[in-house]
Design a protein that fits this description.
Layout: H1 3-14, E1 24-31, E2 37-44, H2 49-56, E3 60-61, E4 64-65, H3 69-84, E5 89-97, E6 102-109, H4 113-125, E7 135-139, E8 144-148, H5 154-160, H6 164-167, E9 174-181, E10 185-188, E11 194-195, E12 201-207, H7 208-212, E13 220-224
Parallel strand pairs: 1-9
Antiparallel strand pairs: 1-2, 2-6, 3-4, 5-6, 7-8, 8-13, 9-12, 10-13, 11-12
Helix pairs in contact: 1-3
């Protein structure tokens, strides 16, 4: 299983000099008061679907081999198979829309710490130290949800290996995290985050370039009403 490779395939399709439209990476986590919850991970290239479709007709572009739809689907299936074997994970599902170029992976967890184990294992397979990843926790007694994030130089190093024309596609790319709760949110520690009108969701949107360059921190501590 290689979740990183699966996302890389979708990003690879976007790495062309003429494809400058934005893409979106969206992480949605729903947490119930008992600590169980659901995750939906999405990569969305729909705003560039016409250009992406043209790229998919090619064997390679600018030295990159363009993966076939079958290869992308295979990688997605491997991600699903891996998640189904992961501790505390259930209800694993995936979707792949090759008309709009949107892929999603969703699953439920018994405890938010199960997400950390998945991330750790994925990074280990990529020979990346686990401290490069975010860690999540939820204290049921204090009703506090936390995400700890620490920027490292790994992403920037890999980004700098790209050709200059390929780097441009990331200029308008965005990363969005959305956290939903059963109880109302009383406060958040990250000033860039926004609380919904219902006060039961928190959203934080940032530029992927800012994440790569370590200019933003998506760490957050969210306090729920007791």
């Amino acid at each position: 299983m290689n979740l990183k490779k699966f996302y890389a395939y979708f990003l690879l399709i976007a790495l062309t000099s003429f494809l400058s439209s934005c893409f979106q990476v969206i992480e949605e986590i729903t947490i119930k008061n008992d600590g169980t919850g659901d995750v939906v991970l999405t990569i969305n290239l729909s705003q560039s679907k016409t250009k992406v479709a043209s790229v998919m007709l090619l064997d390679s572009i600018q030295g990159y081999k363009v993966p076939s739809k079958a290869k992308i689907q295979q990688e997605l299936n491997e991600v699903v198979a891996y998640l189904k074997k992961s501790e505390g994970i259930s209800n694993v599902k995936s979707t792949s829309d090759f008309n709009n170029y949107i892929a999603t992976i969703s699953f439920s967890f018994k405890d938010v710490s199960n997400i950390n184990n998945i991330t750790k294992n994925i990074l280990a397979q990529q020979k990346i130290k686990a401290n490069n990843s975010s860690t999540y926790s939820y204290n049921k007694l204090t009703k506090t949800f936390s995400r700890k994030y620490q920027a490292t130089g790994t992403a920037k190093t890999e980004f700098n290996k790209l050709k200059n024309q390929d780097k441009a596609v990331f200029n308008t790319a965005t990363y969005t995290s959305i956290y939903r709760f059963e109880s109302t949110v009383t406060n958040t520690s990250n000033p860039a985050s926004n609380i919904s009108k219902s006060k039961k969701a928190v959203m934080l949107k940032s530029s992927i370039m800012d994440l790569i360059n370590g200019k933003v921190n998506v760490s957050n501590q969210i306090q729920l009403s007791k």
